[in-house]
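Teaching note: in complex prediction, the entire set of molecules is handled at once rather than each chain in isolation. The prompt given to students was simply: 'Predict the structure of this complex.' The entities are:
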Amino acid sequence: MFGWPNSPRYVLTSIVLWLIFLAAIFGVTWGKYNGWPDSALWALALVPAATVLIQTFMAYNLISKQDEFVRALIAKRMLAATGATITVVVAYGPFQQLLNAPEVPAWVVYPLFWGLFGMLSGVIRDGGRA
Amino acid sequence: MKSRLKVLRAERDLTQEQLATLIGVSRYAINALETERHDPSLDLAYRISSALSLTVEQVFPNPYAP
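The expected output is the structure of the full assembly:
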């Protein structure tokens, strides 16, 4: 991806974290319908948030080590993706709350954010400009 | 910001990658400067001009010059 730091270690760890994230979501779902003890479900339910926290920390560290152009570019993309994600969530809220739209689990926000980040990365290609 | 970086780099037979390595930034940064998608900080402007043995204004003409 243009402007994203070349770090095989980051990419590999990210893939592993995504797999753990998805496995935990499916694990909790499967466990709930197969009578797993509550304590196990509670522990497993915290795993997706832990992967998000680790990913955030890793991305922050990686970006901090980049040059000013890459930092500015990624900061702009992150800001745009955050705004787009919040817009989608806020837009969907009233439909779900009052107009019988299907309930969507909150964890969907995370893949939504990265999906939007990827899409916006194709559009936002300039760094800091006066 | 306008820059003469592409011409000056080519005159010295440097690739974007080589110049980037020389001043410790990514090739993306050099590309963005040459295509006017990024305005350099003062620090970066000084680093580039030093690497090319020029003054900052010879690389990045002052747009506010009278």
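Point out the following to students. The mean pLDDT of chain B is 93. Chain B touches chain A at residues 1, 24-26, 28-29, 32-33, 37-41, 44 (CB under 8 Å).
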